[in-house]
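Appendix B. Raw example, untouched.
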Amino acid sequence: MSTSIHKSVLNFLRELDRRFKVMLVAIGLYSWASNLTLKYNQLYATALGADPLELGSLNSIGGVANSIISAPTGWFIDRYGVKKVIILGLALSAMVSAIYGYASNWLMLIPAIILSQISFRMIIPLTDIIFIGTSKPRSRARAMGLSRTIWAIPSALAPMTAAVIVSAFGGINVQGIRPLYLIQLGAITLIMVFVIFALEELHIQRTAGERVMDQGKRGLIEGFKELFEGERWLKEWAILMGLWRFGMSLSMPFIPLWMVNVKGADPYILGAISTTGIITSALLQIPMGIIADRIGRKKTFFLLRPFSYLGTLLLILAPSPELLILVGILGVLGSMDGVAGVSFIPFITMYWEAVPAEKRGRWFGFTGIFNIFAVPALMLGGFLWQVGLKEWVLLLPVLIEVSSIVPILMRIPDTLRRSE
């Protein structure tokens, strides 16, 4: 049976569009570079002198900037193409690594934290536009799952590599963490050069009966008015994405701080948590993608999501840092590893399928406006952490999702039939 699955995956890979394959390679290396520093960004900022409340404030500034540029970015994507924006995102990401690598105090990280949120949304989500746009409707979730499985191979190597480097240079402090950013800078620069020369632009095929944005005459406002023409459920999606962003932002910056400062995790425990999470995600992505293509995106999401709630509770209650490795397997809200990360794939596939291909740039830009909800979330998380209510920083996202996000998603129709 394993041989049959292996042949099926190889055949599926051969049939993929060249642009899909180019971005598989590029983001595979980008995932490795990102995972080198993923568990250390907040620890590095606090080592340079930032307290949790200041950390939340810094991230909230990034959320505001991200929100402001989101709509113009989405319009630009539909008008000029995805490739240009991805290259810009990689250039900004390289700047982030350089600033982190040479920072001497936490104030120097302000532009890097702002740019990191902007650059990330110009890379991974836009890569998904290429994946969705170049794959067949009945195999989209499987294609998305396959991409994450392949990315997991280099990503799984990054956490333990980082642990070795940090330990060799002095442990979880400024001197120990700094070399990670310099290595990351070199890797992202290499990726950017590769994408410039290897990636062809994604051109959307538009049918004669469709009303499309006239590239020469229609501007930003007209383009976004057209986004809603003939579309249902976009308002519900907008509310859902705002709540999602709020919940994720509330806990995400503080998960590494909880693991190290509250539970006593060392660099090798952090590395083991990330590695087990990545491996778990890699093993489940393709099977869950196939299931999502058969039974629907929503059903698969609801099947997997409770594991992330269980992982969050275990993160809070774990009596020893070694047990946090199980958290890596389950995943937590605010993290994209483990089963929690697998549940995100049917969700994001459904999100992209909510609108036709020629509207996906503007759809991405419009929903990005709701990143503004990250600002109060980050401030609230920093305040709760500062006053000693650290458990609530982790629990509130679960309560928000169960009480608000899940009921809204239950009302929105599955997109599997529409995609066909």
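End of appendix B.
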